[in-house]
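Summary for the steering committee. The consortium agreed at its last meeting that each partner would contribute one worked example illustrating the joint modelling workflow. Our contribution is presented below. We chose a case with several input lines so that the handling of multiple components could be demonstrated. No manual editing was applied between input and output; the record is shown as generated.
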Amino acid sequence: MKYLHLVWSALFRRKTRTFFTLLSVLAAFLLFGLLNSVRDAFANAGQSVAGASRLITISKVSFMVALPLSLDMQIQAVPGVGAVTYANWFGGIYQDPKNFFANEAVAPNYFDVYSEYKLSPAQLRAFEDTRTGAVVGARLAARFHWKIGQEIPLQATIFPQKGGQNTWTFNLVGIYHIANPRERQREEQMFFHWKYFDEATEFGGGQVGWYIVKIAQPKDADHVAAAIDALSANSDHETKSQSEDAFQASFASQFADIGLIVGSIMGAVFFTLVLLTGNTMAQAVRERIPELAILKTVGFSNRSVLGLVLAESVLLLVLGGAAGLALAEVAVSFIRANLAAIPMLPVGATSWLEGLGLMALIGLLVGALPARRGMSLRIVDALAGR
Amino acid sequence: MSPLVEIRNLSKVYTRGRQKIEVLHHVNLDIAQGDFFALMGPSGSGKTTLLNLIGGLDSPTEGTLSVGGRRIDQLGQSDLARWRAANVGFVFQFYNLLPMLSAARNVELPLLLTKLPAAKRRSHAAVALELVGLADRSAHKPGELSGGQQQRVAIARAIVSDPTLLVCDEPTGDLDRQSAVEVLTLLQRLNREHGKTIVMVTHDPKAAEYASHTLHLDKGTLVESGAQAETAAS
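What follows is the complete predicted structure of the assembly.
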């Protein structure tokens, strides 16, 4: 600790350079905190269904493999099940592929199970009565300026109609709202009748994408999940029942390997950080060669000088990194409170430990060469400016 | 009484590429405890090299060098560093203070290597600054001080750990006449009142007059030495 003022003053010798380097370190560890939080959310999802109020039952093989409609009644009969509904991913495109939004074919009782999707009784009745009727979330309607009664054409990407026609036209009969501001992202979906979809598509035949099971008592979620999966054990359509978070994670992982993406981004970020901070440390030490020579002159050993330079580079990383992780903690709390659609876990002790380990490791790595240079300098040469 | 510095047959050869340059050639010299020694000579004569060897900043190629009865030519890097911290104070032409530290923090630097607690370190640094007449500038950074004041801070740093030996390389080379007189007077006082043994390299005959003995070097060989009849400012 008695050397701290030496390390501190050396670090802030060039304030502007240090400030910008700290900013880079902060940005890197902010990203680390955020991405780690997303990765953890995906990694932890599905490990347990304990306490879940709704389960999603999908094919054990893959989310992309359909399940028979006959399971609907069987699941309904499982003790502890409150209600069952089902849905099928449609994947239609509105006008342009960049206008992506989720669109699904759903069972008639879908809005009973998803009771947080608020639809007026008149609109719900209109949906029930209209074969080609569709319901969209308020945010999606606002995004495309859709009004009730409007026709919405979707281009099929997976499911053409019988006869090969790719355009499916739906009549907008309802716009649902979600009261909880955290859940507003879920207003960016479109639902239409599974029955119409199943009858009209070339690939129909009593298959659904997944079941949504409302649990009567959330404490029974584990038992209910096991009982549902036991229904199809050793059949050609074995199932896996999981929490909604786990379902979201497995859904996203159909499109991309989240761990690989996060790992790749962090790898690139930290590689750049190593180059940047390494350059800063190399410059800082090069400028201070005569000062390091003075330290050695008054009696600092080679090892002390090595330690001082390494401490400086680790301090640089820890100051910026800790600020970045603290900011990530605040940002994750904000995102979790306001944007439920992005799965994230709080920046916890593990992230902090990993982060601190990375800070120390990068600090030692980027400080190693400059520190070795400081350690091995010859006093008389350095004082003579050679 | 044995001399504080005892140099026997000391040579120093530098290798520059394939070329070998003999900077010091079989020098023999004794410096008594409490002496104020001036090393003079033309550029390239080996003054600074001899001073660096005496201060333990460099090692001789040949010969023996004892300070206070200890063979410092036989010490390894770490032992030499410890020996310097305990026994030698250094004053350079360009002060060589750390620019981002205050005067007090610069003076305290050698004490960081001791086991003294922070309060003691600070009080020792304050005493040293008082001694050089800069107690009121302790919080100032080197950039906020004049050349003469910076050199006095450097002297305070050199004496703070109470070393036996002070080695000064052109301590007045970068100062105006008035500041030079102040610094030389201070060194003389440290020698006379505090018993510090001082070895000073200088080009300036007027500066050498403050020393009690002058040694002339030419092409790495001791050519003349003698005691001052009457030192300056006496």
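The radius of gyration of chain B is 17 Å. Chain B has one domain: 5-222.
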